[in-house]
């Protein structure tokens, strides 16, 4: 009934009923749906939910048991800009998983089982601005060109992973990077890592929780903060010689000595030959003069 006591038009009631039914049908089981948003947080899902509305812009799958993201099903969500997959079981190979969600701006993969990031992992996410991969203890490798196509990336978090090394160009070549989480990793502060530490001191990037960005190895630098360890590394790497350096210098010295000895021997032989030749010439001329 309407407020005036008159019955609702049947057509209006039918449309309202169809709208409510459509909303219930299009929302995945055990998930809640609002306008352009699907939230499946904490539903103990084992698989990627089915029947997600194709116009979804925000998809939240946090705190489930999902171990695989199907690239085909994701590609149907061409308008997706926000994807939260934290606290799941995602791992192994994510290459080409996000090939169909090129509009994605926010991606949270923290608290999972990621092991590596290659160029093909995020290469199709040209609009990506926020990428969170913290708390992946098995993440040990990020390839040098892993973010080569993610030039809009501003927020990158790889804290509390298994990383021991990160190539400088991986983050230095991101022109819009403003936030980089690196804390509580197993950084190996050797001479190969000196360039990265130097970049940290010179860049305008913000490093949150800086007190916990420390060296794990070698033992002499354990627990020292980065980039304060830069001076020590400069001394160790640029002024101190290691065993292999002494061996190299000895080999160079031996080669120079051997080359000098051979050159002197050859010069001596040439001098002797020249002396013998000139002596014979002088004897010949002396005999000729006596005959005359």
Account of the 3D structure:
The chain is of the alpha/beta class and 292 residues long. It is 34% helix and 13% strand. It has 7 helices and 14 strands. It has an 8-stranded mixed β-sheet, with no helix packed on it. Residues 1-5 and 10-24 have low confidence and may be disordered.
The helix/strand series, from N terminus to C terminus, equals: HEEEHEEEEEHEEEHEEHEHH
Oligomer: single chain
How much helicity do the residues have? 25-40%
Uncertain regions: pLDDT < 50 for 5+ in a row?
1-5, 10-24
Structural Rg: 36 Å
Query: What is the terminal-to-terminal distance?
Result: 154 Å
Shape: elongated
Name the strands of the widest sheet in spatial order. 1-2-3-4-6-9-11-12
Structural class: alpha/beta
Please name the defining characteristics of this protein.
8-stranded mixed beta sheet; two-stranded parallel sheet; single chain; alpha/beta; 292 residues
Brief overview, please?
This protein has helices spanning 10-26, 71-75, 119-122, 168-172, 194-202, 230-238, 243-291; strands at 32-34, 37-39, 58-60, 82-84, 91-92, 106-108, 113-114, 116-117, 130-132, 141-142, 155-157, 179-181, 187-188, 215-217. The chain is of the alpha/beta class.
Write the layout of secondary structure elements.
Blueprint: H1 10-26, E1 32-34, E2 37-39, E3 58-60, H2 71-75, E4 82-84, E5 91-92, E6 106-108, E7 113-114, E8 116-117, H3 119-122, E9 130-132, E10 141-142, E11 155-157, H4 168-172, E12 179-181, E13 187-188, H5 194-202, E14 215-217, H6 230-238, H7 243-291
Parallel strand pairs: 2-3, 3-4, 4-6, 5-7, 6-9, 8-10, 9-11, 11-12, 13-14
Antiparallel strand pairs: 1-2
